[in-house]
Specification:
By secondary structure, the chain is of the alpha+beta class. The mean pLDDT is about 95. This is MmcQ/YjbR family DNA-binding protein.
């Protein structure tokens, strides 16, 4: 997956916005103001995705490309290398999981506004 495909996939989800709150090089995707994905715009060597803690540990054990979240809460975030053998479909699945984790924590009103 390249950065354009990553960006398009994230932005296709309901209520997603993109921002650069950490500087011009870090592209951040949010739903209702809460981060679910981010990456370096210039390099796109990896992406940070929110993850259920148990699943995060499992993915790290199964895939060398998945590491504890770089500069993030390592219990809830994974950094996934985009340079390895992770398929686009698997990366999309993990993006979906990240989005759904954040979406599930929104209030009922916020969810209705996005749907």
């Amino acid at each position: 997956m390249n950065i354009e495909d990553f960006r398009d996939y994230c932005l296709a989800k309901p209520g997603v916005t993109e921002e650069t709150p950490f500087g011009d090089n870090t592209l951040v995707f949010k739903v209702a103001g809460k981060i679910f994905a981010l990456t370096d715009i210039n390099e796109f060597a990896s992406v940070n995705l929110k993850c259920d803690p148990d699943k995060a540990m499992e993915l790290r054990e199964l895939h060398d490309e998945v590491q504890p979240g770089y500069h993030m809460n390592k219990k809830h975030w994974n950094t996934v290398s985009t340079q390895g053998n992770i398929s686009d479909n698997l990366l999309r699945e993990w993006i979906d999981h990240s989005y759904e984790l954040v979406f599930s924590k929104l209030t009922r009103v916020q969810k209705l506004d996005l749907e």
